[in-house]
Write a structure and sequence with these properties.
InterPro entries: DUF6164. By secondary structure, the chain is mainly α. It has four helices and three strands, in the order E-H-E-E-H-H-H. It has a three-stranded antiparallel beta sheet.
């Protein structure tokens, strides 16, 4: 029976491509399901054989450790170079998105605190 190796929700294309290449290189049989039209299912990469799942999981864990180390190194280099994304660079690049996000947060906080103020009296 097939087992889900990787859910593809919010996974960048390069990461999914790397995982496919890793499985191909290790000759692990897999198939991929695509996301549903309505967004209920995100799709995934499935290992076909139960016996190969342990090997695929081990390879996946190793890949994720390497990717995390690479991402941390890239972020540290960008931070050192002064090119890392900050709140102010994001505000400068897309002020409408930042303002709308802050208004949404304030609205949510307001909704959460309304019962406190109503029940206080």
């Amino acid at each position: 029976m097939s087992k889900l190796l990787m859910n593809l929700r919010n996974v960048p294309d390069d990461e999914a491509d790397d995982v496919r290449a890793m499985l191909d290189a290790q000759r692990i049989a897999f198939y991929e399901t695509r996301p549903s039209i309505w967004g209920i299912s995100a799709g995934g990469i499935w290992v076909m054989e139960d016996a190969a799942y342990a090997d695929a999981r081990r390879a996946m864990d190793e890949y994720q450790q390497q990717r995390a180390a690479r991402a941390r190194a890239e972020y540290a280099a960008a931070k050192l170079a002064g090119t890392a994304e900050t709140f102010f660079t994001l505000l400068r690049a897309d002020p409408a998105r930042v303002v709308m996000s802050l208004l949404g947060i304030l609205f949510a906080l307001g909704l959460v605190t309304i019962p406190f103020f109503l029940l206080r009296g």
